[in-house]
């Protein structure tokens, strides 16, 4: 007969297997993951498409305070769009948002969205040159390359020309932010300033930025594989798999090489892979490159990547909560779990 200690070990192992099996049939909620009562896990917040409009601008300081007050949170990500698409792209607005970002008491990693530069050509945005606004956005938010906003922390910048693309690692999870935005990654015409097709400068900027993003993605996976990391999380603004409409080629053509690279890397990686985005404003969790998905044909992906799990955060008028993500302890059914935390103000 096994000893008392042996019976305890066997019992614990059985309980772990049973818990993991049950967790696989339920949504990934932080409270459901095994081992969460034990110390040692990491928790971070994700927000995006905020603040949108005067009402949210007024409430944003309180939302920052709420995230700061959560003692479990040790890191914050903003996945782009610091304003809505129908308000002006004036200098003072960017500086106001930067002041609020610096109020975070944890490190804040921000990746730009289309509303703060790509779409600034619109008349109601001020008819700005988008490339000039991109340069200004970088001057305001990335004036200390390799250092986060909020509480200063060091992050790696793979390409100095693109200080907004950063990589970091926490508790066996590799993170990469990629500067990939809506409006077909800025290949849609700047009609507000009289353009009917993408300009040569516009095309060159997009190609360089996409090449840098793909290079950063592949390096992140290579390093995660070398370190035997449990998971990779990629964060960006653009929703490349927006389920709310049927896209045209002009909506998504720029994303094709990134999606193909993401599918390849996911298939090779022996761990969990998560893609977090904003852009479409409605919380969603799915596996867009699983067998049978319409996105495989749309992006020319020949080998499905069922291991890619995508999460869209709430934003815009639907911005009523922030996403609280937990890195579970080893033995949990999945590396990450998350919950939507309602804003209280």
In percent, how helical is the residue content? 25-40%
Which regions are unreliable across 5 or more consecutive residues at pLDDT < 50?
1-27
One letter per element, helices H and strands E, the order comes to: HEHEHEHEEEHHEHHEEHEEE
What percent of residues are in strands? 15-25%
Radius of gyration over C-alpha positions, nearest whole angstrom = 21 Å
Attribute tags:
alpha/beta, six-stranded mixed beta sheet, 33% helix
Describe this structure in words.
This protein has helices at residues 4-23, 53-69, 91-101, 130-141, 182-186, 200-226, 249-252, 256-268, 294-298, and strands spanning 42-47, 73-78, 107-110, 149-150, 167-170, 173-177, 231-236, 272-277, 284-286, 308-312, 321-327, 336-342. It has 345 residues and is of the alpha/beta class. Strands 4-3-2-1-11-12 form a six-stranded mixed beta sheet, with no helix packed on it. It is globular, with a radius of gyration of 21 Å. Mean pLDDT is 91; it is low at 1-27.
């Amino acid at each position: 007969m096994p000893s008392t200690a042996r019976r305890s070990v066997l019992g614990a192992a059985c309980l772990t297997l049973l818990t993991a099996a049950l967790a696989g049939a339920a949504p990934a909620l932080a409270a459901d993951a095994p081992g969460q009562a034990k110390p040692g896990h990491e928790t971070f917040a994700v927000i995006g498409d905020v603040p949108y409009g005067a009402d949210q601008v007024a409430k944003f300081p309180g939302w920052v305070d709420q995230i700061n007050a959560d003692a479990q949170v040790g890191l914050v990500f903003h996945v782009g769009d610091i304003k809505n698409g129908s308000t002006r792209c004036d200098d003072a607005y960017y500086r106001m948002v930067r002041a609020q970002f610096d109020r975070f008491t944890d490190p804040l990693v921000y990746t730009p969205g289309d509303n703060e530069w790509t779409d600034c050509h619109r008349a109601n945005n001020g008819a700005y040159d988008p490339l000039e606004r991109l340069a200004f956005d970088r001057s305001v938010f990335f004036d200390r390359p390799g250092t986060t906003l909020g509480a200063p922390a060091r992050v790696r910048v793979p390409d100095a020309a693109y200080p907004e693309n950063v990589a970091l690692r926490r508790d066996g999870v590799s993170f990469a932010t990629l500067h990939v935005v809506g409006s077909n990654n800025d290949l849609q015409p700047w009609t507000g300033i009289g353009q009917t097709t993408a300009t040569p400068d516009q095309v060159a900027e997009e190609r360089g930025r996409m090449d840098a993003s793909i290079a950063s993605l592949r390096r992140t996976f290579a390093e995660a594989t070398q370190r035997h990391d449990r998971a990779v999380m990629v964060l960006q603004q653009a929703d490349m798999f927006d389920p709310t409409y049927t896209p045209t080629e002009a909506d998504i053509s720029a994303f094709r090489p990134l999606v193909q690279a993401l599918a390849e890397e996911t298939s090779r990686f022996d761990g969990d892979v998560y893609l977090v985005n904003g852009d479409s404003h409605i919380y969603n969790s799915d596996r867009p490159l699983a067998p049978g998905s319409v996105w495989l044909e749309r992006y020319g992906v020949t080998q499905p990547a069922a291991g890619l799990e995508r999460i869209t955060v709430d934003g815009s008028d639907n911005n009523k909560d922030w996403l609280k993500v937990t890195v579970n302890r080893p033995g949990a059914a999945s590396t990450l779990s998350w919950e939507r935390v309602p804003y209280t103000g």
